[in-house]
Design brief:
Elements (H helix, E strand, L loop, with lengths): L47 E5 L64 H28 L19 H5 L11 H4 L5 E4 L8 E4 L6 E8 L15 E4 L5 E7 L15 E3 L9 E3 L6 E8 L15 E5 L8 E7 L14 E4 L6 E3 L8 E7 L5 H4 L4 E6 L8 E7 L1
Antiparallel strand pairs: 1-15, 2-3, 2-4, 4-6, 5-6, 7-8, 7-9, 9-11, 10-11, 12-13, 12-14, 14-16, 15-16
């Protein structure tokens, strides 16, 4: 897998932050909170690392292959991965589960010939009934002709004497329009069937695809009153009350990395649709080095030295799409990002390395690199070595060979 990879954890969200599915409201099929991806499980960063080194002043190994600066990062004999065994062989046509009972069909009755005696009796009774109904209809019509007709019009031409309910044209069955903002409390959730500038809120269950009211500012209609809260994705004012709802969007149940800011650390798994979470910065965690709002693809991340992974959230609405560009916090430092010929400053116990702007300020340089875990002592052939394994993201593991400057 490409180490600069990403996944789209919210590709099935509907437009404008509403969940995918037809209709207009949580009672319609397909609506309601999405699955709680990752709920109940919060992965923790886990890495294993080690650095070996030749003592300062030790003889430099003889020049050979890729182990000298500028000669490439892979030793001879390191081939590609084994060929893909290919797709599974096609299976046999579906024939049902073993032991499944076969459908049973009853005999089809043979249609009879001609009209039976009961049929002739029914026809006769039908004729008698039709004649009787015709006589009754004539009598009713004659009786109605003697009743004077009336109308509901007002002949006076004025406003009096008429029914005021008819004049107003109001539908007595029409219910009053509910203002969700005026009645909302902190913790209430909504779907937005409008957009960022013209929201159309409808009460909903909290969860994926819903907005949760996390703050309410009373006595104002200024939408910027929510701007100081980085968790707020939408501000909505009321038409019936002077207040502003500050709403936070839930892209995936259990995920809060969606709102992570630059400098914060997050962690999750590479499983598509899984929740990521904000955690304490530590070895093996990912640090947010760039946050891009209005973007759902990691291709928008800046191609910097430390950019190594990204998470793009696609919601169906551009104003909610967000991408976080990440740096892995390697326990062994910048050596995890170093390429062949890069110069480093190794600490006194040779366990941590940092980039230097000028090789004159460093004490070590990289002689070989692979994004696999190999036996560094033998693979580096006498040079110093460092490796770091990342079990949850094996494509981010590495082995590096280094020598003294």
């Amino acid at each position: 897998m490409d180490p600069y990879s990403s996944y789209d954890p919210a590709a099935n969200q509907g437009p404008n932050g509403a969940p995918a599915g037809p209709g207009h409201g949580p009672s319609q099929p397909g609506f309601g909170p999405g699955p709680a991806y990752g709920s109940g499980y919060s992965p923790s960063p886990e890495t294993s690392h080690s650095i070996g080194y030749p003592p300062p002043g030790a003889p430099v190994p003889p020049a050979q292959g890729p182990y000298l600066p500028g000669q490439g990062a892979y030793p001879p004999g390191q081939g590609a991965y084994p060929p893909d065994p290919g797709a599974y062989p096609p299976g046999s046509p579906y024939q049902g589960y073993p032991g499944m009972p076969q459908p049973q069909y009853g005999p089809v009755p043979v249609p009879s010939q001609g009209i039976p005696v009961g049929g002739w009796i029914g026809i006769a009774l039908g004729v008698v009934l039709v004649v009787a109904l015709g006589i009754v209809g004539i009598v009713v019509a004659l009786d109605n002709s003697d009743t004077p007709s009336t109308t509901a019009t007002d002949d006076s031409g004025g406003g009096g004497g008429g029914d005021s309910s008819n004049d107003s044209g109001a539908d007595p069955t029409e219910s009053a329009i509910v203002d969700p903002v005026a009645d909302a409390a902190i913790g209430d959730c909504f779907y937005n069937y409008g957009d960022e500038t013209t929201p159309d809120l409808e009460t909903a269950a909290c969860g994926a695809g819903a907005f949760e009211a996390i703050d309410i500012v009373e006595g104002t209609s200024d939408l910027t009153s929510c701007d100081s809260n980085t968790m707020v994705d939408l501000a909505v004012s009321s038409t019936g009350a002077t207040r502003v709802l500050c709403l936070s969007y839930t892209v995936i149940a259990g995920d809060d990395a969606y709102h992570a800011q630059v400098g914060e650390c997050v962690y999750g798994t590479s499983t598509s649709g899984s929740a990521w979470n904000i955690i304490e910065c530590q070895d093996g965690a990912f640090k947010v080095i760039e946050r891009l709002q209005g973007e759902s693809s990691t291709s928008a991340c800046t191609d910097s030295t430390y950019y190594i992974y990204g998470v793009g959230y696609s919601t169906g609405s551009t104003y909610l799409d967000t991408t976080i560009c990440l740096q892995m916090m390697y326990a062994s430092g910048d050596i995890g990002y170093a390429e062949v010929d890069d110069c480093l400053s190794m600490n006194s116990d040779y366990t941590y390395a940092s980039f230097v702007s000028d090789c004159g300020d460093g004490n070590a340089y990289v002689t070989g690199r692979t994004n696999e875990i190999v036996d560094g002592e033998s693979w580096c052939n006498g040079w110093g070595w460092a490796y770091e394994e990342v079990p949850d993201f094996p494509e981010l593991s590495f082995t590096v060979c280094w020598g003294w400057l």
